[in-house]
Amino acid sequence: MRLKTYILLTTALAGASISTMAFAQQADETSSVDEVIVTGIRESLKKSIEVKRDANAIIDVITADGVGKFPDRNVAEALAHVPGVSVDHQFGEGERVAIHGTDPALNRVFVDGHAIASADWGGNPSDRSSRSFNYSLLAPEIVARAEVFKTPEARIDEGSLGGTVIIHTRRPLDLASNTFSGSLGGSYNDRSDKANARASGLYSWKNESGKFGLLLGATYDKQNLTRAGVEYFGYSSGSSFDSAFTYDAAGNVTGGPTINGAAPTNASLAELQASRLPCCINFAYFEQTRERVGLSGAIQYKPSDELEFLLTGLHIEGKYNNFSQSEYSVAVWTPSTLQAATVENGLMTSGAFGAKANGDTAQLDTNYRVTTIQNDSLNLAANWTPGLWTIHADAGYTKATGGKDPEYLFSAVSSAGFTYAFDGKNTAVNYTSDPSDPGTFTSRANGTVTRNGQTFTGYQLGGVYTGVTSDDETYAQLDFKREVEWGPFTDILFGLKYSDHTNEESSAGTSVYSDTPFSLADIETVQTPSGLFDGLGVSGNATQFTTLTKQEVMRLLAEAKYSFYSIDYGSSFKVDESVAAAYVQGNFEQGDLRGNIGGRFVSTQDDSTYWVTEDGGDTYNQTQTSKSYDKFLPAFNIAYAITPDLFLRGAAASVIARPRYGQLAGAFSRDDTQHTASGGNPDLDPYEALNLGVSAEWYFAPGALVSAEIFHRDISSYIVSKTTDMQLYNPNTGSEETYSVTAPINAQDAKVTGLLISYQSNLRWGFGIQTNVSYSEAEVQEYNMPFLSKYTVNVIPYYENGPFEARLSYNYRSSYFTGIGRLNSKDSTDGYSQLDFSASYDVTDRVSLNLNAQNLLDETYYSYSGTKDAPTAFYKNGRVLALSFAYKL
User: Fold this and answer.
1) Considering the domain 2-234+279-888, what is its CATH architecture?
2) Cα Rg, the chain, nearest whole Å
3) What is the pLDDT of residues 227-251, one digit of tens each?
4) Before 644, cis peptide (omega within 30)?
5) CA separation (Å) from 115 to 66, 152, 392, 505?
6) What residues are paired with 311 via a beta bridge?
7) Among 143, 540, 547, 585, which is most exposed with the fewest C-beta within 10 angstroms?
8) Strands across the sheet with 143-149, in order?
9) Span 20-31, pLDDT tens digits
10) pLDDT at position 666, please?
């Protein structure tokens, strides 16, 4: 009912004004011919349909409403309206896209035909080791068109399992001279309760002859995110509490904590031992300031009709500083203090634990990450069309840096008793000592500590950690196209490309100790805001707790007596990847039949450099492992015009997607206390798949389309994480012990089949609608396909009449598997609905007022472990309202 109310109310508001008028933009007055460019929702949809209709492959297209006016405030959010494309909203705004249910890291994005480097801010769990691109960094104002290729062509770079996104930016010779568009406004997030400014501008000039032009775009955007969440740090076994019970000589239980309100029996204990319980329940308070500055430019020179040069550049700098504050109870730290347990449906849904003298039952963590993300790309392209030939060449360089530089970590612990209870929707945690009392949290009882050969009495405060990532690529490409009359073939295309890519991470940390014990009562503290966790189904005194400011965290770490620096060898690596490719493709057309056929040969060389130890971590040596493979990737696309407005398409192709760089690194990290370890695998093979697609499209009116698409992915050598027991040397005990070691392997085949149905049309009285529904099904051996939702739905009614236009966007995706989480948990995200609204009003021919509202439903992001009654996280990100004035010349 809530959704229906929102849709009816907002659609009614959108239809409040009825008049007719088309957007117009006049060419430069010095031009001999006036150029009129029609813009607006209907016109952009019409242009998108024209590109889709003329394509040979199965594609979808999004076109900007006008210069500097791309749909939605975020490119990823706009792409989410495309059938078969979905985004994840863990931090509110969409950042990466999944195509046909494939992991974002297994799809590629190109800007003007070339790759763009990627790095993230170091605390984002959706960062996929830089194979994917964070679309939130790309200013939508510079985008003219985005194409989603769901079936490949031989001429398009390989590396996508689901699909390829090609972003086309604006070129100065395509615009009227002295074109200018700019906007100034602000946004407000109702959860952070903060407003910020946003501005953008684009200017384009060309000389009178139209042979030389310049374009410059700039954007500034700032957001304050406040995310409240309840997190369950994986699930442990109920057998963790065996030591809390007493047994007779025959092994029968004779006493101990109550189970389901009664004294334990062999049967009830067995039920407890077989159950799962949350290792930790965390009340998480995340704050982040995202401040981004983007610059883009283009210089275009066309000395003749046959020759053209284009130099483009992109600079993005974003500050993503963030502060995480976490208060969590840890049931498995206190097995001997268990007093009562309730077991339902295989879960220990409640537990009561007594205080633990000289021990830890709960922990308070603060993490302040300082992060600057920078992205620089430069590309030089040339096009020469002598006679029947078209020769294209380009070369460029792209680099991105990011990560934690540094991260300040402070922690304190509590020995208080606590109770917890959960039912999949609600969470209750109560401590016997009030967590809002600063005296509840104290230093660990470290006692005697030996670090780097120095022995002392110390109490660990935390540490300072750096994890800097770098991603760069140099590339060159040469393409040829020759018009021919060889039977049905009209064009022959062939070309070469070489790229050299480096992805690396350098990590190190400093452990910091005080020489005296402390409690939070001894230092400056603050309280978390009241009502912070409203709407998340929480109760108990854990919902408000004492914490520190980031300034106090940095001060304490800087003034501590002892600090010890060490390189994090297990997280430091470098992967050098060189790719040489050659392709040939033939375009054909015979009557109502057209398409292309070709193949791409790809040779890949990966050199993984990392550190290994043979003495339990006392010393490390750098080593390198190389892996090379050659692949031939045929591709075929065909389109048949049954009538001038009814098309049937088919496609078949062999595709690959390369492992994430972090998976290729042989770096090996471990926890000698928890007896767990994880590492990469430099011997991984790429993902391989046979992709099939069929679509039927009926263009029944200008700007109108109804279509159906069926796709099938037959994937082999799918990479999954496997956990096995291994004997490793434990330097804490000086002996070989059993560790649970997690590493990626090529282990799983998968088949994915889906059906997509789309409809869009102008209706009466200025109204129109876009809508699509996707259904996907996977056949897998063990793990479901990450990011594959069985259902996705988009319903986008719009209104455009006179100076007013409005659009309501409703997006729903059903639950999907996200990956292997803490304690080998099989984590999934529940179904999620996103409702956005945008509107604009032309005050004059040049000035418009724009409104954008995101996440109107303030949806809860919910993830779970295996079954929906075993949660792993609840998050609220808040609604965002943005208002701006735009000017165009």
Assistant:
1) Beta Barrel (2.40)
2) 29
3) 999 999 989 999 999 999 999 999 9
4) no
5) 25, 16, 16, 20
6) 299, 380
7) 540
8) 59-63, 143-149, 164-169, 108-111, 114-115
9) 222 223 233 333
10) 80
Alpha helices in 182-262 (DSSP H): none
Instruction: List the chain domain ranges.
Output: 2-234+279-888
E strands within 47-107? Answer: 59-63, 85-87, 97-99
Angle 164-79-633 from CA coordinates, rounded to 5°: 10
Q: What's the farthest any 2 CA atoms get from each other in the chain?
A: 103
Q: Six-digit token pair at 552?
A: 């106090």
Contact 83, 709 (CB under 8 A): yes
For residue 561 the two structure tokens come to: 């007596």
- Answer whether 627's CB lies under 8 Å from 682's CB: yes
Amino acid present at 423: D
Q: Which of 842, 766, 751, 867 is nearest to 807 (CA)?
A: 766
Region of 157 on the Ramachandran plot (φ > 0 left; ψ -120 to 50 alpha; else beta)? beta
Residue 9 CA: distances (Å) to CA of 237, 694, 772, 812, 853: 49, 38, 22, 19, 14
* Three-state secondary structure call for residue 292: strand
pLDDT, mean of residues 363-375: 93
Three-class secondary structure of residue 104 per DSSP: helix
Q: Cα dist. 197→91, 183, 232, 870 in Å?
A: 20, 11, 36, 40
Fill in the amino acid letter for 849: L
Q: Produce one character per residue of 521-556: b if its CB has 16 or more CB atoms within 10 Å, e if not.
A: eeeebeebeeebbeebbbebbbbbbbbbebebbbeb
- For 800-814, give the DSSP string: EETTEEEEEEEEEE-
Per DSSP, the chain holds a count of helices (H) and strands (E) of 6, 52
**Angstrom distance (rounded) from CA 690 to CA 680:** 26
Contacts 24+ apart (CB under 8 A), 28-37: 28/176, 28/177, 28/178, 28/179, 30/177, 30/208, 31/176, 31/177, 31/208, 35/176, 37/66, 37/176
Coil, helix or strand for 662? helix
Q: Is the pLDDT of residue 477 over 70?
A: yes
Dig out the tokens for 323 from the structure. Answer: 């502060």
The DSSP bridge partners found for residue 558 are: none
Contact 397, 378 (CB under 8 A): yes
Is the per-residue pLDDT at 357 higher than 90?
no
Distance, CA of 215 to CA of 180 (rounded, Å): 10
CA–CA distance, 831 with 480 (Å, rounded to integer) = 47
Look at the block and give the residue holding tokens 């699930």: 235
The 10 Å CB-count burial string (b at 16+, else e) for 197-220 is: ebebbbbbbbeeeeebbebbbbbb
Looking at residue 352, its pLDDT comes to 96
- Coil, strand, or helix at residue 555? helix
Q: How many residues does the chain have?
A: 889
Residue where the block lists tokens 């005194």: 541
This prediction has a pTM of 0.87
Cβ burial, residue 622 (10 Å; 0-12/13-18/19+): exposed
Taking the C-alpha atoms of residue 128 and residue 111, their distance in angstroms, rounded to an integer, is 19
Cα–Cα distance, 118 to 674 (Å, whole number): 33
CA distances from 777 to 150, 421, 692, 756 (A): 17, 35, 15, 12
Q: Tell me the pLDDT tens digit for each residue of 775-831.
A: 999 888 766 778 889 999 999 999 999 999 999 999 999 999 887 777 778 889 999
